[in-house]
Amino acid sequence: MTDEWRPEGEVLALVGDSLTQGGDWGALLPGETVRNFGVAGDTTDDVIARLDAVIESSPALVALLVGTNDLAWRRSVEHVVRNVETILVTLRKELPDTRILVQSVMPRGHEFADQIRDINRHLWQFAPTVHAGWLDLWPALALEDGELNPAFTEDRLHLNEEGYRAWAAELAPALERLRDLPPNSRAITLPDLGGSR
């Protein structure tokens, strides 16, 4: 059992929106000490506004999944990417020894697929710059056209029990891989791109 070597009370902070909030993580991730920082309706701006609470919890690991609600508010791909980058840079700076996992924005209705793929491509490229792991959830959850698999949802956005099980089946081994990486102690700053946008 891999749990035996884990430090007592090592906290995993799950950060995101209703997708994160709705998971029964105690059952889905047995052996993890989970703090659920998922808040229904949250956008990337909302997560930035409440990052202090995540930082104050001093988690050993952070798994981030956010961005889909921004699209409902018609925010641009650039807005989402820049905000997620800000979240990651802030976490890395404030929690230098914490292992961070960035999860791809999940599929939803196929009409959002191109935007989400674009966001995910940027985040996949950015994650290594803050020494964060990357978990692409699309192979497990999306149909070929980018639609969230109907077996996993009733409303093309939120997950049912099957959907949560499929997500956890990807997340659990990704967290184990992340634990095998050396902790990071080097703070990363965003380059100055000529003023804020």
CATH class, anyone? Alpha Beta
The level of helicity is: 40-55%
Strand content: 5-15%
Large-scale geometry: globular
The whole-angstrom Rg is 16 Å
Strand ordering within the main sheet: 2-1-3-4-5
User: Termini separation (Å)?
Assistant: 48 Å
Please describe the structure with a list of short key phrases separated by commas or semicolons.
about 200 residues, alpha/beta, Rossmann fold, five-stranded parallel beta sheet, 9 helices, 5 strands, about 40% helix, globular, disordered N terminus, disordered C terminus, SGNH_hydro_sf, SGNH_hydro, hydrolase activity, Ester_Hydrolysis_Enzymes, hydrolase
Write up what this structure looks like.
The protein has 197 residues and is α/β, with parallel strands linked by helices. It has one domain (2-179): 3-Layer(aba) Sandwich (Rossmann fold), CATH 3.40.50.1110. Helix content is 41%, strand content 13%. It contains 9 helices and 5 strands, in the order E-H-H-E-H-H-E-H-H-E-H-E-H-H. Helix 6 (77-94) runs parallel beside helix 7. Residues 15-166 form the SGNH hydrolase-type esterase domain. Keywords: Hydrolase. GO terms for molecular function: hydrolase activity.
Task: Please summarize what this structure is.
The chain is α/β, with parallel strands linked by helices and 197 residues long. The protein contains nine helices and five strands, in the order E-H-H-E-H-H-E-H-H-E-H-E-H-H.
